[in-house]
Amino acid sequence: MATAYAEAGDRTAAATHAARLTHVSKSFAGPAGPQLVLDDISLDVAPGEFVTLLGASGCGKSTLLNLVAGLDRPTAGSIETTGGRPALMFQEHALFPWLTAGKNIELALRLRGVAKAGRRAEAERLLGLVRLGGAYGKRVHELSGGMRQRVALARALAQDSRLLLMDEPFAALDAITRDVLHDELTRIWREAGVSVLFVTHNVREAVRLAQRVVLLSSRPGRVAREWTVGIEHPRRIEDAAVAELSVEITEELRGEIRRHGRD
Predict the structure, then answer these.
(1) Sheet-wide strand order for 33-45
(2) pTM, two decimal places
(3) φ and ψ at residue 108, rounded to 5 degrees
(4) How confident is the model at residue 260 (pLDDT cuts 50, 70, 90)?
(5) What letter does residue 140 receive in the DSSP assignment?
(6) How confident is the model at residue 216 (pLDDT cuts 50, 70, 90)?
(7) Record's InterPro entries (predicted)?
């Protein structure tokens, strides 16, 4: 029996979690009957915590993120978030090309109910936060890939949620741009105090960014193992400690893939 997606709490209250998944499962209809994608997942994301989700392709990482975002409902179990509806950032920037960078952000502010008189100033503040001051009037085609993702991040932050959901937002970028945006995301996360649930296939990216790495098993996705990342910030993707933990996690991931191959 499915249970309802719920938003709970007030940002003025002392929340014990930003997101709580309790025995969550998800099935989709298939030609041979229901296909179980996620199975009995229980996971908390603490206020201000940065958690990355890892797993092989098809293990249900994006499905889980969509469930937390409220875009779909679990087949079983419950999902609760605090501090307003989560903000979701995709791999593609999904900016409206007929709007400027600033107007893309203002649209999110308008949907949030911010008065027209204050939207431009807030959009410019958010562009400054992602180091795009002066880009308010730029059209999407005038922005590089990295700049578009910064605008998308500013738009997500404009929703004023305490939980940011990110579905491989840097996967399509070159290594140097991705490295720069890792720095920027870490800075913004620490300055804004938001919680982040970040999906990636890149083990080093997961270790470089997160306080905690969660590995999902392959088909159906279950929580296979978790790691607390005790490496101090600032971190670099080439740091020895990042590399060492990445090797350990990669071996576990390979093991999950091998086990799935024998199913």
Answers:
(1) 2-7, 76-81, 19-30, 33-45
(2) 0.89
(3) -65, -35
(4) low
(5) G
(6) very high
(7) AAA+_ATPase, ABC_transporter-like_ATP-bd, ABC_transporter-like_CS, ABC_transporter_ATP-bind, P-loop_NTPase
